[in-house]
Amino acid sequence: MMGWILLVLLAPPSAWATTISDKTDLAREAILDGDFERAHDLLDDADRLAPESHEPVLRDTLSRIPYYRGILEYYVGDREVKALEYFKAALVHNDEFRWDVELVTEEEPQDLFELLRNSIGSRPRPSAGVPVAAITEKIYIDGTLMNSYDDVVEGRHLVQVHCADGNLKNRWVEFGDAPDYGCICSLSECFRPSFQNGESQVRSSSGSLDLVLLSAGGASIIGGTVVNFVLLNPLWLEIQEASSEPHTITRDEANLLEQQFSRRRALTLGLLGSGVLMGGAGTAMMFMDVGWQAGLHSN
Predict the structure, then answer these.
(1) How many C-beta neighbours within 10 Å does residue 133 have?
(2) By the 8 A CB rule, do 30 and 38 touch?
(3) Neighbours of 221 (CB within 10 A)
(4) pLDDT at residue 270, as a whole number
(5) Quick check: 122 and 108 in contact, CB under 8 A?
(6) Based on C-alpha coordinates, what's the Rg of the chain?
(7) Has residue 258 been placed in a domain?
(8) What's the structural domain count of the chain?
């Protein structure tokens, strides 16, 4: 009996953390303690538990998983690309998610996080696709009970459907396109409404695509601008300062600066270039769609 009591007392807190919120709380503590490996394992556990949850997972809890992963990348990984991708994923779940000043006190990543918030805010917001007809199922996206008129930020979200049998079925969904929520429960419960005719489907899809391209192009240009001002320009100034005082820097340090500058410049040009291309394609498709619809009305 005493052996069991000692086992309970000596077991680490993570052994008794059973909810996603528990796991993320412990991951935060591990980051504060500098135990990054343990934090990584706890976040893996939280990510695995999310699609298995028997209750709605709140958006703030979901945001903390990629946010803490971004913090780990900032400290010991790829702070220039992967950290930003994780921060964006956190803001997709909750665009009001706040920066944790206890985890990272430096101002630069906080400023960048706010710029990323603006970038996410400019993304398309497609319809959540919840059926208008009355149904018994409750549909949650990132823990929020959805209505037929609700939309979501384009990106990866956790969809949870409270099915007729009383069970909660979960699935990660990449919006744009909304899933058939009934099919998440079972194939026999699919309730996606069909289009009245093929013409409506083509018109709807083409109209959506040009808006997606325009919005994605705008987001890409904003992202390129952010990288230019926040990451590229400060590094260029650092290189200029080192060039004016070459005795203050070693050859290896100079090579490292040149490599970082090349990567950041390539990222900036890639984002700006892709933004211009997508924006141009979206504009062209919009004009083509207007002409096509005018032709239909004239006939």
Answers:
(1) 8
(2) yes
(3) 20
(4) 76
(5) no
(6) 24
(7) yes
(8) 3
The reply to whether 99 and 185 lie within a common domain is no
Q: Which domain holds residue 259?
A: 198-291
Note whether residue 10 is domain-resident.
Answer: no
Higher pLDDT, 178 or 227: 178
Predicted local distance difference test score (pLDDT) of residue 299: 44
Name residue 82's amino acid: K
Mean pLDDT of the chain: 78
128 within 8 A of 176, measured Cβ to Cβ:
no
pTM of the model as a whole: 0.62
**In this predicted model, what pLDDT tens digit does every residue of 252-286 receive, in sequence order?**
666 676 777 777 777 778 777 776 876 677 677 66
Residue 139 dihedral angles phi and psi, to the nearest 5° = -120, 125
127 lies in some domain: no
Structural domain contains residue 112: yes
The rounded distance, in Å, linking the Cα atoms of 295 and 288 is 11
Average pLDDT for residues 126-133, to the nearest whole number?
83
Residues in the chain: 299
For residues 163 and 249, membership in a common domain is answered with: no
Write the DSSP symbol of residue 103: T
Helix-helix angle 59-76:36-49, to 10 degrees: 150
Return the number of other C-beta atoms located less than 10 Å from residue 117's C-beta: 18
Which residues make beta-bridge pairs with 144?
A: 141
d(CA 45, CA 136): 32
In the block, tokens 């309730």 appear at 191
